[in-house]
Amino acid sequence: MKYMLLMQFSAATAGFPAIDTWTPEVIRAHIGFMQDTNAKLSAAGELVDAQGLAMPDSAKIVRSHGGGAPVVTEGPFPETKEWLAGWWIVDCETPGRALEIAAAISAAPGPGGTPLGMPVEVRQVMSAPTEEL
Amino acid sequence: MTDPGGPVEDLLRALAPQVVGVLTRRFGDFAAAEDAVQEALLAAAVQWPEEGVPANPRGWLIQVARRRMTEEVRSEQARRLREDRVARQVPADRRAAPAADTEDATGRDDTLTLLFLCCHPALSPASALALTLRSVGGLSTAENARAFMVPEATMGQRISRAKQRVKSSGVPFRMPDRGGWAERLDAVLHVLYLIFNEGYVAGVGDDLQRVELSREAIRLTRAVHAALPQDSEVTGLLALMLLTHARSAARTGPGGELIPLAEQDRRRWDAGAIAEGIALITAALPAGPVGPYQVQAAIAAVHDEAATAEETDWPQILALYGVLERISENPVVALNRVVATAMVHGPQAGLAALDAVGADPRLTGHHRVTVVRAHLSEMAGDRGAAAALFRAASRATASLPERHHLAIRAARLTDPGVQPD
Hints:
The structure holds two protein chains of two kinds.
Chain A: E1 2-10, H1 24-43, E2 47-52, E3 60-63, E4 71-74, E5 82-91, H2 95-106, E6 120-124
Antiparallel strand pairs in A: 1-5, 1-6, 2-5, 3-4
Chain B: H1 7-27, H2 30-51, H3 57-76, H4 79-89, H5 107-118, H6 125-135, H7 141-148, H8 152-169, H9 178-199, H10 207-227, H11 232-245, H12 271-284, H13 292-305, H14 314-327, H15 331-345, H16 347-358, H17 367-379, H18 383-396, H19 400-414
């Protein structure tokens, strides 16, 4: 079963200072933890994909109704309070294992080495039916 | 890539387990033998379609793989260690294996021995599946990765960890003792059934590649059946696969949407596979102890024998689900029996039975319960309730084709303009 783990950021509810205010050592430790986590998932044969996303202030929104030029607008909105910072797609044996991986990611270290407790959304990737209808 | 169904490919898949078997017996190292054979298979897949198949293809593969292994042994300066290991692992009476390049009749037994090794109880189902397809099925890591829609690196790790586990479990390369036989055969059949089901899906990823998995499962189950023709559960599993696979062409519409059994165009079913499956299950049922694969095959046979959905012999299916429920503790079986009950005794009887079955804590929150309730409500004429239930079930399933199918059924019930197709 494949699961997408979405690392959601919320400036209002994060409970920790924004990453660009951290010291370089803390940032390095945080990134090192993420790389280590990915290496472990990869060695277990569970990692399908993992990507970080650029900040939402550089994002574009595209709308098209089929004809004419599509409408492209800047970013979601400058006052965005929540954004998707990155994702993992893992292929694991049980739903419980997906939650376990999400918990490990959530506990990535922040300032002072304290686990951040980031919210990680776990969504099952749609697949094919497993039994006759 | 060469045509996956081509004669060279078929030949390589048939020879792969024999060559791994010969080299594993000779060198006493399954993981290294398996790696070397993969390289030999790749070389053959490139050379043979160009230059023709050699006169002794099995000997050719053994030669190439053995040369590869010998290089490996030399470069590691560990030959003595390996020889010691062989001496320790192989009992004296088995040490005189036939020369690696002589033709012998042990190929068939090797396939079975390899299956027992790859379907080791210490492996997770996903690992056992991957290892079986590579070592016994001769699929490359890349093909395996495509079939399961994961990156090649991920599949590579999965396979190498599985081989490591087999190695550290210390299981020697020979058939398990009589005592361990039944348990291991159960694991083998279960893994083959899982491979079949991986392929028996619709509308996701590369359809052709997935159908390949079902075909491969059938091919491997045929090999087990050839080695153990007297085992009625092996026969039952082969029959079940053939009878189910026979319907695959009719099971999806042009857009990949699911077509339920009752609405399938039965002219598109594979009559040859149905006839073979029915012959197998007819021979197996009276022959040995009745297990769940045989009963499931019998149910599939009753469905396949009906010329139209209306002619389905539901009383017989209901009776078979009763048997299946007694021998396999699976709440989904009880749920299927509810549907059969409704087909025989009417929707109200089905709904009453569903209340009892749905109370099973293992089915709590399971969308299949909602699907069955929706289906029975529709049968009972309660269109409003049925539509709401189909919508709820479509939101709860993790299967994309099933979600579309359920959403369409809900829409049909609410919008009189939408006709059943």
